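Help wanted!
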Amino acid sequence: MRLLVIEDEADLLSSLAKALREEGYAVDTSEEGEEGLYKAMNTDYDAIILDVMLPGLDGWTILKKLRAKRKTPVLMLTARDTSRDRVHGLDLGADDYLVKPFDLNELFARVRALIRRTAGLSRSVVQIGNVRIDIPARQAFRSGKAVALTHREFTLLEFLAMHRGEAVSRAALYEHLFDENENTLSNLLDVHISNLRNKLGSEFIMTRRGYGYCIE
Amino acid sequence: MKLPRIRLNGSLRWQLQLWHGLLLALVLAGFAWTSWRLQRASLFARVDQELEHHAQLVIRELHPHGPNQSPPPRQPPPPDGADLGPPPELPPDQESAGLPAPPPPQPPQPPEQMEEAQLENLNPLLAKERDDQDLRKNFLYEVVWGPLERILLRSDSAPKSPLQPTAGSARSGFRIHDNLREYFEFLPSGECILVGKEMGDDFASLNRAAWILFAVGGAVLLIGLFIGWMITSGLLRPLITINHTAAKIAEGDLSQRIPMPSGENEISGLVRVLNQTFSRLETSFERQSQFTADASHELRTPISVIITHAQNALARERSSEEYRESLAACHRAAKRMQQLTESLLALVRVDQGGRGGERITCRLDQIAGDTLELLKPLADELHITLESDLKPVTCTGNPAQLAQVCNNLLENAIRYNASGGRVTLRTSREPGFSTISVEDTGRGIDPDDLPHLFERFFRVDKSRSHGSGAGLGLAITEGIVKAHGGKIEIISQLGEGSLFIVKLPG
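Answered by r_m:
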């Protein structure tokens, strides 16, 4: 799951990015409106966390321009808390709204909910065959027994599960699993896939040769 | 004239109504009374003239040769009754015709003629003949007393026991008793004659007139009160509207305005003044709430930094490097909040009218020089050259606040300068005022931004990344300068730099 955080307060941005990475997300950051909009337009993020007061382009303008092209879920982050501001943001196409100062756990929960809703899932626990995936707990179970997964493995599983029945290309997996700063090795994905198959069953993840992977 | 104040539940309407009603009632009563008196007086005047005239006739009848001789009975009067002018109800022809000297047995005659005929009532038979016709009201009657109070003559229509006037006070006069109006006269020959008239009907009609006046007056009073009520209501309606609107505003709805009454009068002037006041109040309240919103907004971002860093650091065991990073971020955020609260306090002091300390005569050039020294490290850090040209200048003011003015202007000039730029500080004396000027070689100010430059929380660059300012520095600066009775002028060229000139009186 890859996120973009656009926030001009450097200290806040750094702690947000760090906390989200620890939650298992790949996180891109931007301190400035124009750059943020460029990234948002050209990468398929799973969600965007957007501050309203920004140098260059403000949050509302970014949202408006983004909505002309992409449906990426956006969570607005702002210090303005009047209901007029909220209504304005939601009307412009924001998917959620969080007022500063906020609790990190609430932010995590809202981001999870945004991604889940976008994937069309109504519940945060997904059952596929004998495998159960508990997204908030970031825990997978095989036949009721907990399976130890690394962050990245779990994220890979989560992403494939959310696109259940679809073939997901390797390029898409790379885009959603690694952030802009990671120097990804081309076989890293194969390693994670093979680990997941070992832990959850060799038939759990199917290979679409020459394209990508799929959970049936 | 000062009217006594009558309190009727404090209602202006009832007070107006009461006074208006009283006045109207007074006027109507006066009018009706006068009119009734006039009517009565004219009635008496007419009757009295009639009586006097009749008395003359009787006298002439008694003493055809003058009142000093004893009465020669059965002497016809000279037919000169008409000379005296006829009483209103006696046509002259009838009068003269009714006085034939030897009275024959007469047929029923009009009452006016009978009095004259009655003079012959030394012969009671003749009088008897007319009795039946005489017993009617509204006829004149006469009684003649001889000396020794003996009734010489009494017409039948006269009261049975006429009251003899007492001599002494006046030789002649009018009196009234029992609906009878009477005229008496004492003749030199010793007789006393009395002519009178029964006035029951006249009094009744006078009474009727009084009642009509009373009824009409009452009706007019009621109509007047009603019209007065309408007028008062019309006049008071704008006041009631003002009251309603003011009540709503008092409840907190500052957007309310009093509807302008049609036409131009005292009320519309009042409404205009009130509406202007409400507008100013609303603007000032909006500014205040905007200011509070901005202030809380400015505080929220550093609070978010502290909360997220602390939460993050506490989430699990961290390396000391990570802890140090988080603490440093918290420290920076706390510093910013400190600066912000200090700026807010400074603004509050400025708003309270510059009560931030006593005013003394101070050396502006020294204050400016000291401030410049303090900012040297910051300028060095940002590679800005500081220059100064400080001529000795004094002014009356608060040294700490004036130092803050210098500091704010200089810090802005340094922070928003291009690296390698220059800041020049000058003090000088101009006719009427002392000036401090700060010139920089920064990027200049957009003409669109100039009008907003001194607004609270206004930042030319919306970014917070340029350092500490929350957009209050210039607002505080302007507040202090204004409190000192001075002003700030700005000359700015985009891309070349700005010049801030502070002019202080004295």
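OP: Thanks! One thing I noticed: The radius of gyration of chain A is 18 Å.
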